[in-house]
Structure prediction request, 942 residues.
Amino acid sequence: MQLSGTHVLNAPVGKVWTMLMDPVTLARIVPAVSSLELIDDNQYKALAEIKMGPVSGSFSGNLSLLNIREKEGYSLHVKQASKIGNADALINIALKSLDDDQTELTFDGDARLSGLLARTGQRVISGVANTLTKQFFANFDEALSNEMNSVE
Amino acid sequence: MSNRYIGESIKRREDKRFITGKGRYTDDIVLPGMLHAHFVRSPYAHARVVGIDLEEAKAMPGVIAIYTGDDVAAINGVPCGWQVNFRNGETMREPKHPMLIPTGSTAKHVGDAVAVVIAETKDSAIDAAELVMVEWEELPAVAAPADAILPDAPKVHEQFPDNKAFDWTFGNPIEEVDAAMEKAAHITELEFINQRVVPNAMEPRAYIGSYDETSDKYTLYTSTQNPHLIRLLMCAFVLGIPEHKVRVVGPDVGGGFGSKIYHYTEEALVTWASKQIGQPVKWTSDRSEAFLTDAHGRDHATKAEMGFDADGNIVGLRIKTVANMGAYLSTFAPAVPTYLHGTLLQGLYTTPKINIDMTCVFTHTVAVDAYRGAGRPEATYLLERLMDLAALEMGRDPAELRFQNFIPPFDGVEQPGYQTQVALQYDSGNYEAVLKRGLEMLGYENFRAEQAEAAKTNKILGVGFSTYVEACGIAPSAVVGALGARAGLFESAQVRVQPTGKVSVFTGSHSHGQGHETTFVQVVADKLGIPMDDVDLVHGDSDTIAFGMGTYGSRSLAVGGSAIVKSIDKILEKGAKIAAHKLECAEGDLEYAEGKWTVKGTDKSIGFGDVALTAYVPHVYPAGLEPGLDFSSFYDPANFTYPFGCHIAVVEVDKETGKVTLKRMIAVDDVGNVINPMIVDGQIHGGLAQGIGQALFEGTIYDENGQLTNGSYMDYCMPRADDLPMFETDRQVTPCPHNPLGVKGAGEAGAIGSTPAVVNAVIDALWSAGHKPKDILMPLTSERVWEAMN
Prediction:
């Protein structure tokens, strides 16, 4: 499953970076992820709920941040297992400061699916990927505006 | 003898139980204390089992036992029943197909089993299986046959780095074919994929193993096409149990299409586990497991060239194919692309020089084996696609081109059989006649004008032809033995006349939808001249039937039916002795008809029932004659049988969307003598649907990681009634000259001829509108057809 997207966030790059490095925020904005628990440096235990076409399931596994470049980006490695199959995704996230209030976030990557997920979800996979991408950015926008509001 | 039943469309006796829900399939059988198995399967196409944690799973309520590959490492793998060696003499490579993958070894296809959970209920087995924690190390995989022979392809079996199971060549020496092709005025070249399909039997595989300690005897209930073959393979090659200690029962079986010929690991495992635990163990595959673990069909990547002289006579045929074996060699797998495919490449044509170069490869996919037609559909697809394409390329009429190249008629009696360039000798054939009849039914003389009109619109028309010959009634044991079969392919039958003249027939053929309980009984009742109600057929139980090689390769009536006729002949011969004694005449003075022996030219007679009773109450009885009226026979056929026919498809293609609508499907088949026309029609209809399914709808998709991406009915498209036109069928009868019933076999014909007819029709439609594709990858989805025009 190919994953990619670009979105302009209304916040300075420093702010976006801080949020991206915060497990609580990440858990809130990454679609389908219900909890993130720090287990080691940049390594989290992650729980997720995913519905993909006809199949749905609870996933558990690891999420780790690799290749961390301060305010520039990192790679997100997600390995999730469930009774309906496993997912292994590597997603590169890049930040680009557009001006003092705007940051462009770009990501692209690939998720490899196995088991029932691979077997029955393929027809709807691009739709699911698009939905997840839209959700991710919508969640990010919402988290940012909440953050801004609470600051004000 | 009587003529009451043979040739009549008697309604199927077995349907009474099938359509009222009273069929008794393996999954319907409940034994006291029966446990349920569920397998833990690899989610990866290629992955090492690093470790397995059973702790949580074992603690689940209801769990009785969990076995991993380490527990069953001492058990042999399931064997392969056919050996085809490399052309240089190197022995065929037979990697072990283990019961379960042990720790440290690698799973070799998605669905390869690593553990089995046995629990009190199916649900608890499933729940516990989800808690079996397997640590996997995922490894690179290869799924497509042509990719498997690339230099850097991931290796399926470490010990065979080139991924080859064997390679093989057949027919005339390649130099002779090359020389013939060099002189050709025109060469039609076609590269294509005959895609992988899933057999999709309605009843998924199901097994129950049961062990009785007091008698030290096992019973295996299995959804199989051949109970005795399973017993032989499992006892002798896998579990090492003496055969007399194993009873194998194949009860009602809901379809097989080849996929239930083979001995599967799950069969041996439930049998083994039932002894370990001391309770019966049942496993029933779910549909998803069926997609992953039933042996698939087809999967050839081919380059074929057919050469013609300036007049359009075929001068040579040269083929290079890579065939996918999957990860392990299934029971008949090596025979399918070789001796069931290479030997059919003569087709119906007088092609003087033929050579095939075949490479059979391992990939990280489930095994490929015989699927309805088994090799003959692949051969027919190749030949018939070439013929229609050659006609288009040379500006010839495809029907005319065939008439020109057909083998002339031969009945195998007055004229000898036809010796092909690829080993076989056809028994009898009359190929022109089936095509002529097909053209008549089509109304060919008007079709091309309609097509030209349609070509001006958005709904273009095409016609596709396919004329096939296949090899059925498999097979003469000596012949297949010489070709690498590790079994004989005879059949057995016992006809037991009960004291009251009622008859029980025990056949080694196995019915899983073919209607044997009707057809075979029609034969017996007519041969004995008694009512069908007086005859019952018994099949599917190794304890009651002497032996059986089972049902596949359209062999049941031709081979199993012939064995029955042999036993009936013995019954009538002995009956005549008893009758002569009772009527105080010479045997030679008697004639047998309508269920009684009559002294010729008199009204003195004795009925079949009286003779039967006398045989069992032998008070007044010929001296020296044994009591009883019960005979067994084994029949080993003298040759294959060679049904043939002509299938014609008419399609409409929407130029704007690429959508293909099958408008007409015409099938004229010659399957030799016909016992029950309705059942033959049913077989043809079902076969046509499956063949059309491959052309237009079906196709197994393994992605680049070896994941099966369409493993459900939401994703794998099966043909439905509303995708199909009313079939227009007709028959011609050229009897088989070498079996007593003159029958050839009808089980696979529909699936053999129809696929290329449909694809040819679509290609023809596109050429009529000025597009000139040589091939479109099956299944011909709207997208692919549209792309061929845009």
